[in-house]
Amino acid sequence: MENTKKFVELLKSDPRFTTESYRFVNEALSYAQSILDLGETVESDVPVRDANAVEKHITGQDLCQAAKDYAISQYGLMAKMVLANLGIRKTSDIGDIVYHLIDIGYMRKTKEDRREDFDNVFDLAAELDNGFSIEYKK
To answer: Closest Cα partner for 120 from 82, 98, 84, 94?
Structure first.
């Protein structure tokens, strides 16, 4: 119940993002964890249920790339529009969502992670358009 209350307050505090915006970023994180070869693991500075648990670390840049790839795989040509409707137009928007979730305890970060890691990683709109073109036959 407490988690629901925190999330509702979060939605009220930043109306740029909806429940679906947060769901998308969470799904992109799961996607990143499933496809990235992250090599060495790092421990979070936030306590977890199992003190011995170690998870693979996803950087801000990794998550931005995974979010772009996940959006294209899920929405194809509509990816740019779908993400724009979710309030996600720049990689910094992904960072805002992640750090909102960190603030309410839904995500964790390492001591090295910074909010700025998400700023200007790449031009999200251009990357979502990249590789797609419509050819008209005469």
So the answer is: 94
